[in-house]
From TrEMBL:
InterPro entries assigned to the protein according to its UniProt record, in alphabetical order: SET_dom_sf, SET_SmydA-8, TPR-like_helical_dom_sf
SUPFAM superfamilies named in the record: SET domain (SSF82199)
Protein name per its UniProtKB record: SET domain-containing protein
Coiled-coil regions listed in the entry: none
PANTHER family xref list: RE12806P, SET AND MYND DOMAIN CONTAINING, ARTHROPOD-SPECIFIC, MEMBER 4, ISOFORM A
Gene3D superfamilies: SET domain, Tetratricopeptide repeat domain
Amino acid sequence: MQSKYHQGGGFSTNAIYPYLAIAAHNCVPNIVHTILYEGYEVQVRAAVPIKAGEILYLSYAHALSPTLSRREYLLESKFFNCECKRCADPTELGTHMSTLKCSKCDNGVILSSNPLDNDAQWNCTDKGCGFKTSGAAMRKFLSVIQSEVDQLDSLEPGPQAIEQREAFISKYKSVFHPRHSVLLSVKCTLAELYGRVEGYTIDELPDIMLGRKVEMCRLILDTLDIILPGETRMRGMMLYELHAPLMYLARSEFAAGLVSQDQLKEKLKEPLQCLVEAARILQREDPQSPEGIMGHIAFESMAQLKMSLDTL
């Protein structure tokens, strides 16, 4: 184990876990791991049911990265070309996390002709369109866009961080598929910011913005079901983010006389289930970690919501 002190405070630590290192890579992993703050022990758990004899997979790359970026990273840092099912599928298992909209026609989308070749041509799926571009041009384009995303990520949490991300999505919604990794990563951050920053706290959000947060959370969760299935940290965090707008929307409808008390009680079952699952997933994390702390909060919120339901 090697630790390094950073000016301004804090340490970063590198460690080798020989048994964990045995796990193979797949861009759709079936195990998750947690490193405990005390003693730096590592815990490994199945994210999904795994049969005896099945290979254990971690993902060495970021789950929300597109195929081009993941494969380049794996080749440069891990020295192998990934050929998993997700990488081999131009649609990334139907998620379209690498898909662009065609600027030449309205009928097709732009996909790689061979995702396992980073230099392969990208073509419009509409046979009558004929639009095509090179793999090199696509990599350059993604690099430029990623620079914009990096600038967004450098913003301090606040109103500007939300507004500039929404402007980014509006700017590129005609370029990328709604679930393209670029937009998805920005939406993931937005889902966490809405309800937490000045001017956009959960109590201040109008119903339309609460609905916006719900929409983004559901989109991310639906995508995670495919690329990061099972009980993962990201799923736990997003379930926690989803519960609050669902709860506030239900209560808003009740206050407006749009639903009865029985209907309100029924609507509150979904945010309760979100908290139950979020608490179960996140309480497995180190109690001092952000995820572990959120797991504790989710558990307390779950108990409070249960009490509220019992008194309705």
